[in-house]
UniProtKB/TrEMBL annotation:
<comment type="similarity">
    <text>Belongs to the 4-toluene sulfonate uptake permease (TSUP) (TC 2.A.102) family.</text>
</comment>
<protein>
    <recommendedName>
        <fullName>Probable membrane transporter protein</fullName>
    </recommendedName>
</protein>
<keyword id="KW-0812">Transmembrane</keyword>
<dbReference type="InterPro" id="IPR002781">
    <property type="entry name" value="TM_pro_TauE-like"/>
</dbReference>
<dbReference type="Pfam" id="PF01925">
    <property type="entry name" value="TauE"/>
</dbReference>
<feature type="compositionally biased region" description="Basic and acidic residues">
    <location>
        <begin position="292"/>
        <end position="306"/>
    </location>
</feature>
<feature type="transmembrane region" description="Helical">
    <location>
        <begin position="180"/>
        <end position="198"/>
    </location>
</feature>
<feature type="transmembrane region" description="Helical">
    <location>
        <begin position="42"/>
        <end position="60"/>
    </location>
</feature>
<feature type="transmembrane region" description="Helical">
    <location>
        <begin position="204"/>
        <end position="225"/>
    </location>
</feature>
<keyword id="KW-0472">Membrane</keyword>
<keyword id="KW-1003">Cell membrane</keyword>
<keyword id="KW-1133">Transmembrane helix</keyword>
<feature type="region of interest" description="Disordered">
    <location>
        <begin position="292"/>
        <end position="312"/>
    </location>
</feature>
<dbReference type="InterPro" id="IPR051598">
    <property type="entry name" value="TSUP/Inactive_protease-like"/>
</dbReference>
<feature type="transmembrane region" description="Helical">
    <location>
        <begin position="72"/>
        <end position="92"/>
    </location>
</feature>
<feature type="transmembrane region" description="Helical">
    <location>
        <begin position="98"/>
        <end position="123"/>
    </location>
</feature>
<feature type="transmembrane region" description="Helical">
    <location>
        <begin position="262"/>
        <end position="281"/>
    </location>
</feature>
Amino acid sequence: MRALVLLGLVGLAAQLVDGSLGMAYGVTSTTLLLAIGTNPAAASATVHLAEIGTTLASGISHWRFKNIDWKVVAKIGIPGGVGAFAGATFLSTLSTEVAAPVMSLILLALGVYIIIRFTAFGLPRGNLGKPLRKRFLTPLGLVAGFVDATGGGGWGPVGTPAILASGRLEPRKVIGSIDASEFIVAIAASIGFLVGIGSENINVSWVLVLLLGGVIAAPIAAWLVRHIPPRILGSAVGGVIILTNVRTILRSDWVDAGSGVQTVAYIVIALIWAAAIAYSVREYRRDRDRESVEAAEHAQRERPAEEEPVAP
């Protein structure tokens, strides 16, 4: 019973983060399942089966708060499903030990770019509103879906920073669109796992508990992303990407850093991350106050002058 309660809390927390930042549900949940001895294929299958429900709830919640660009969902979701099915089908014969650090280096670079761009300059507006092309979203969906299925998570960490870095879609719609399209990915991956390993290694009660926690958190997360300012959200997402991928790199065979080195690295990143968010909050408030003053001055200029009373 204690394990089920813990899984439910993890599902709730993971979906709260995922729905707010566009990533981390699969990674968080899969990590816990692996820690208690579940084999990688069964762990990923359990998480993806739960994600069918959590992503549906998250997508509906984001839709209600108008956080979704449906054109982006269609362009990235379908190739994402293809990639996820392929990754799930071949997970038992594929190793991601070498690919994971390479992908983490790419994502780390994107995370650094995002946190600098949003913290220092705010929401990128030069490309905002320009369409996201199929030639960009199709390969992105294929790669993200494949990584998601083989690694037990990765749709958000790959898709969210790549679309954010393009500067063509505001952060809340990037997160909402990624979460909504993950429904397609979760279904495709689940079918692939059921074909590849069957259902005997999947604990249905774990699936249901993870699902319950995620469904409870989904509308809360969608509300949060609607109300968090884009500049602050961008800084927060950038920090998550950096911290997650530095952790992967330090623990890889390439680096194999000691626990002391890892601890120091995490502390330094956390301090920089906190400073970036604090700076973004300050600049957001300053910009908001300036815009309020400018709006008031503009309204004053546009207001017709009162007619002077005529002397008797």
